[in-house]
Specification:
39% helix, 6-stranded mixed β-sheet, alpha/beta, 24 strands, 7-stranded mixed β-sheet
């Protein structure tokens, strides 16, 4: 087992590793074999306050630091991730139940986003804007917001913590990070350790491992942070947005999805099957962009269904340490129970199970369901696990209507032999991201990432990080003399 789980099972506040002072511990379990990885005494609201105050103190000097010097920290952090890749991969497998393939995928993206953070330090530019007043010069400066609070999820914790933490720091902010309780090391203290070793000054990044049962809304209500970056469910995201609005904070919300992968009548069926299986079952389906629904034109539905079911039936479920495993455990028993409930509900509503996977502890084998009634709530909600719904349709118009018939709008994909037909289809979907002749699960460092409807507010990646983590300040200079009416 990685030494990370013994060395990093602490809070990281104001440049110091210290135990929490709460009255109970968060126990970090391996979701595959329930091995206890670590025990972390939780942080209290007082420690959340100490973390934010430390970030506030350290941020002023950091913002004044030459951006080329800030950039060097992220160059070093990237080298450290590359050097420690094997250890980090082991930690992802142990703490998340991620497969070897998933760990490699997450680390690849994490390195890409660190490379982008290197460039982001130099990205903010000011402007001089003309004035209708003689002798006046209008300068618009882009400045850090100050302190950013980051709340990261359990499914891609290393990547999704770094994705907000690194850009916010690169742009001159301080940060307090609250990782998910199921992934406190990979999503929290490991990120802090890498940036500490890369030379980030103490106090700028703080990690509090805690639970809302202990701190309530203290993390998002606190007066210091000006932006809260939250990745998680739409239910919690709604609450975060409400509290932020009441406290005059900006929220950046990357929330759930109910993406559809659409197979039109002229699609390459074999290729569409490969894309659909990956899009539904990567990381046990615990991906916000996963293809919950696979919509297939009736003209190719029989062929697609036969090949899809055949491929899903070959996916190996088991120990994520085994390189042959495709489906590892879901994150905890409540997720496993919820997925069992989804399948039972679908069958009770009249669906047919083309593949019905067994559930053993946290191992949930893939299921493929079809024949769900059109008004089923299951077709409109996010299902965070390896359960696919196959839905036939008649023609493009019906496909567009079905894809949009959900409160979510994060990702999606369409397969067709005519690229422009695919692009025109994509334009009609109410979603932040859509892919032609590919899977639904994509993230790239300079492309705006985010959703519409209940899938979130704002965008991350590339230049959109400037909108998320900086603000604009107008300073005017009167070189002549203004005239005043009195």
């Amino acid at each position: 087992m990685s030494s990370y789980f013994t060395d990093l099972a602490q809070q990281y506040i104001d440049g110091e590793w210290r135990p929490g002072t709460g009255s109970w511990d968060i126990i970090d379990f391996n979701p595959y074999d329930n091995e206890k990885l670590a025990s972390i005494t939780i942080a209290t609201a007082d420690e959340v306050d100490a973390a934010y105050r430390a970030a506030e103190r350290a941020q002023k000097q950091w913002a004044a630091t030459n951006p080329y010097a800030r950039r060097a920290v992220f160059e070093k952090a990237l080298r450290l991730v590359e050097e420690r890749e094997a250890e980090i991969s082991e930690a992802i497998v142990a703490e998340l139940g991620g497969t070897r393939l998933k760990a490699a995928f997450e680390l690849h993206l994490a390195k890409e986003f660190l490379r982008e953070a290197v460039h982001l330090a130099l990205r903010p530019e000011g402007r001089i804007i003309p004035s209708p007043v003689d002798g006046k010069e209008n300068r618009v400066y882009r400045v850090p917001v100050g302190v950013v609070g980051v709340i990261s999820p359990f499914n891609f914790p290393f990547l999704l913590s770094l994705k907000s933490v690194a850009p916010a720091l690169a742009l001159g902010n301080g940060v307090v990070l609250k990782p998910h309780q199921n992934t406190p090391i990979v999503g929290g203290t490991l990120v802090a350790k890498i940036l500490q070793d890369a030379g980030l000054p103490g106090g700028l990044l703080n990690v509090v491992v805690t639970d809302i049962a202990e701190i309530g809304d203290a993390f998002i209500e606190h007066p210091v942070p000006k932006v809260i970056s939250f990745t998680g469910s739409d239910k919690v995201g709604r609450h975060v947005a409400t509290v932020c609005a009441a406290n005059f904070k900006r929220s950046v919300l990357e929330l759930g999805g109910n993406s559809a992968l659409v197979v039109l009548d002229d699609a390459d069926v074999d290729y569409a099957v490969d894309a659909a299986v990956f899009s539904r079952y990567v990381h046990q389906g615990q991906v916000c962009m996963a293809a919950n629904r696979v919509l297939v034109d009736r003209a190719v539905a029989d062929e697609f269904t036969e090949k899809f079911v055949a491929k899903v039936s070959t996916l190996k479920t088991g120990d994520p340490r085994d390189p042959e495993t495709v489906i590892g455990p879901v994150i905890n028993s409540s997720q496993a129970d919820a997925l069992s409930g989804v399948v039972e509900q679908a069958l009770a509503e009249g669906a047919t199970a083309l593949v019905r996977g067994a559930v053993t502890d946290n191992l949930v084998e893939p299921s493929v369901l079809t024949g769900l009634p059109a008004d089923s709530a299951l077709l409109r909600q996010e299902v965070f696990g390896p359960v696919a719904f196959l839905v036939p349709f008649d023609g493009e118009e019906e496909a567009v209507r079905l894809v949009n018939d959900t409160p979510y709008g994060l990702s999606g994909a369409v397969h067709t032999g005519d690229v422009e037909r695919g692009v025109n289809f994509a334009k009609r979907i109410d979603t932040g991201m859509f892919h032609v002749n590919d899977g639904t699960v994509h993230d790239e460092p300079i492309v705006p990432f985010g959703g519409e409807k209940h899938s979130g507010l704002g965008r991350l990646n590339g230049d959109t990080m400037l909108d998320a983590f900086t603000t604009q300040k107008w300073i005017s200079v009167q070189h002549g003399r203004s005239g005043f009416p009195f």
